[in-house]
Amino acid sequence: MKTLIKNAAILPMVGTPTADSINAEYFTGCVAWEDDRIVFVEPGQGTQAGMGAEDEFLAQNPDCKVIDGRGKLVMPGLINTHTHVAMTLMRNAMDDVPLMTWLEDNVWPFEAKLGADQIAQGARVGITEMLAGGTTTMVDMYWHEAAIGRVACEMGIRAVLCPSFVDGPRMEEFEHDLTETLAVAASKEAGGRLSVRIAPHSAYSCSAENLRRAVELAKQHGIGIHTHVSETIDEQRIIRERHGCTPTEYLCDLGLFDIPTIAAHCIHVTDRDIEILREHGVTAVHNPQSNMKLASGAAPVAKMLQRGVNVALGTDGAASNNDLDMFDEMRTASLLAKFTGSGLIDGGDSTVLPAYEVLKMATVHGARAIGMEGQLGVLAPGALADIVMLDITGPHYFPGNNLVSALVYSAKSSDVCGVWVAGTERRRRL
Ligand SMILES: [Zn+2]
User: Fold this and answer.
1) How far is the CA of 51 from the centre of ligand 1 (A)?
2) Closest Cα to residue 225, out of 234, 216, 233?
3) Residue range 229-236: average pLDDT?
4) Is residue 145 a part of any domain in this protein?
5) Residues that place a CB less than 5 A from ion ligand 1
6) How far apart are CA 221 and CA 66, in angstroms?
């Protein structure tokens, strides 16, 4: 099956910008894919005389589906690198309370009652919301990931499923979930779109013994790790009292970072912590809306990026956000960084985290986080056809000055009018 979108604004997030382009990051042109892979991405508009690249493609592929992209922007699908998709079940139910009240009196008791069926229902809602908003890959951490994986298979989103555990009776359940999740990811229905990581919840909720077990299992299965790191000052204090070091140093000592690791939050990190993350190629995932809502703090994103850490972007769960909207998240990331100075300058700096850098966090850096650099997060020949199309004719794009700015500062996820994962168009409604 071949598809071509022509006459669209193309934002490839890769490659050398064309000389005649007004804004170097994007151009008017076409993108074509066959089955699950992009075949070409070219600037220029086709002519009746058959001079354009797409005309040539069409001449060779007369059965190709053609989409007229006038008034549209086409970009790589967004990668939500840290979420708990089933937490849509708790959306808007427990807001405006202190963090520990939120966790201990609301989230944990509610979660204790959840079975696989409810979690699958929550995932169905969350995945629909993500696809509708242009997210084509999610990195999800929860219990019953096998159930979430089955929903992901059915709905067609790409997913990194991360069965999670904390200390206690759930350890056994976790190992069962891991085995089952690996089977779902390897199934024919998954079509290669699913992979698995192990998710110890955090340094403070898992014992050293269980964290070592996670490392052992990750090595055994040849998979990565996904955990929460330095989300709060309390966490920092607890680990210092117990182990005399920071959570980052502690997890590094236990060998977690010898395995490809995704570390959510990384808010209260020291310069030494940042160096450890960089040295070990750990991805820090920034979750600005959740961090602001729970008053956890502002991660030093610009500083981490400047020091060479791969920083990706995530929404966290819908109980602390309260949506799974990556366009919203991009805007918040940039505004929060400017407002705080983002670890570089106290008192704020309007120049940090410019729009294109934030777009990279939501695409290229997300792909790097999951070991898919060059395959996802870009529009390029040979890359996977995870593609998003937005209608850019709304008043909030007027007068069309700079589409990179528009995507971060004025676009809305409801502008998304087409979503393809692995080359297949995905449903954006329940
Ligand atoms: Zn989280």
Assistant:
1) 51
2) 216
3) 95
4) yes
5) 316
6) 42
